[in-house]
């Protein structure tokens, strides 16, 4: 394990990389039409790659080549390169000689930002290199940077170091017009129930929507009873960005969020790449260090390989008190509805 000073230095570098990606994406958006940026560039096993994604990928390559510390060789994992040669910096470094594996989602929430509907996020997780065995539980440094809509004046940026807790959380807001950065207070909700709060499961696309809604409805009925007259209001918000969902939990807006698409699709016999992948979930460390809970739907630790194709099912809570209420019920409902 690297020293705290080493990780702080790498955090500074990773945040600078995300600043560059954000600035490059916003500059391209301001200079191009939505139609041009939303054109499909390619389709991979991981996802559909749009023109705006290519802007961010080029920004990553240029920044890492010019700025990544040469004494901290790294392998990059991101969409679009999973079928080619490994991408390492300093360029040409054999993977076996790299110290780190960095998984990046250049734009998490592409559709939302392309339509200028909702912010997207740049996500990155850094783990000691363990070759193909490296997984999400190895991540020791995570960072996320907001890609704002055109009407926003602010971009949030949050990062965390494993094991440092809230004291290791760095959160800032950047004023896009003045360049001024200010500390940002982020704190997950301390609520002990879900009444009158936001909590939901991902139902972004038609596939599997009915079964997912059935699971969610059963969850609330098991928790609060089946009398619809007495069911407390629990609000739903479908933010099509895993990083954005984590930010909603970090900010105290939501109390529970989850993505069961891999499990639901398997039950229905569906084959689809429209699921959460490790690059989408690579900043879950930040929420855990802030006091939240992120885990597999069965309550165990996330341990997805750091690649771009593995499906990931997850559930997250603002605090452990909420997790304790849902865990046994969700396990029972999933066992019955997905058996």
Can you offer a commentary on this structure?
This protein has 339 residues and is α+β, with helices and mostly antiparallel strands. The chain has two domains: 4-183, Fructose-1,6-Bisphosphatase, subunit A, domain 1 (Fructose-1,6-Bisphosphatase, Chain A, domain 1, 2-Layer Sandwich); 198-337, D-Maltodextrin-Binding Protein, domain 2. 33% of the residues lie in helices and 22% in strands. An eight-stranded mixed β-sheet has the order 4-3-5-6-7-8-9-10. Strands 11-12-14-13 form a four-stranded mixed β-sheet. Helix 1 packs across helix 3 and helix 5 crosses helix 9 (320-337).
Give a quick summary of the entry.
The chain has 339 residues and is α+β, with helices and mostly antiparallel strands. The protein folds into two domains: 4-183, 2-Layer Sandwich (Fructose-1,6-Bisphosphatase, Chain A, domain 1), CATH 3.30.540; 198-337, 3-Layer(aba) Sandwich (D-Maltodextrin-Binding Protein, domain 2), CATH 3.40.190. The chain contains nine helices and 14 strands.
